[in-house]
Fold this sequence. Notes:
It is built from 18 helices and no strands. It has 291 residues and is mainly α. Helix 13 packs antiparallel against helix 16 (224-240) and helix 17 runs antiparallel to helix 18. The radius of gyration is 30 Å and the shape is elongated.
Amino acid sequence: xxxxxxxxxxxxxxxxxxxxxxxxxxxxxxxxxxxxxxxxxxxxxxxxxxxxxxxxxxxxxxxxxxxxxxxxxxxxxxxxxxxxxxxxxxxxxxxxxxxxxxxxxxxxxxxxxxxxxxxxxxxxxxxxxxxxxxxxxxxxxxxxxxxxxxxxxxxxxxxxxxxxxxxxxxxxxxxxxxxxxxxxxxxxxxxxxxxxxxxxxxxxxxxxxxxxxxxxxxxxxxxxxxxxxxxxxxxxxxxxxxxxxxxxxxxxxxxxxxxxxxxxxxxxxxxxxxxxxxxxxxxxxxxxxxx
Length: 291
């Protein structure tokens, strides 16, 4: 507002000390002799600034907005009677509020149903896929639907252009950007080719690659520790070229796997768990070297 102190004092005495009080008092528009006399005490430049502030769009929106329950609780300076009960009721509402489940949203995108066990598997995979937080972060961002897509950006900017940024011409949904795009598919096919070299037979399924939801087959679950770094490296490679009109590179994917291998090795050394790490990477290292 930047009005002088005497002007603010006059406003508080005659109209109140809040925007709502000032609005209700009609101090600036009142034509009574008393109101005119009060306004005469305020210097012209200060009065202009006060009028400009009070008639600004942002100010009128704040005045017309209904106060929230929390604002009512905080502003109630008359009595503390029932205050704890009111606060408790509001806290219960916050706790009971349903939050969006990102894994269920993934299920909708894939046009399928994930059971409670599938959702638990995806959440567990997100938290335990790597001992390194730097590697885990890639999976966390994917599971929680962190990345912006052409569809989301178009909604936010009220634009009609929601085409894939890679230039394939299709609608850029999250599932499309991660899996369906024809410029991304060659990398996923390379990943599955590597799996076959390791004699690992997995269904060609985005739920496995993106979320870590594996079929409940004992043999498949045994290979999960080998598959996970390959999938996370692929996710990182795709994210790196998220807006670029080109196919994610196989060479970049293999480089990312070497980086993950290094990180996992040092984390295993620190945690004194070197042999499980060596067992996981033994076969995978051979295939990586052959490429």
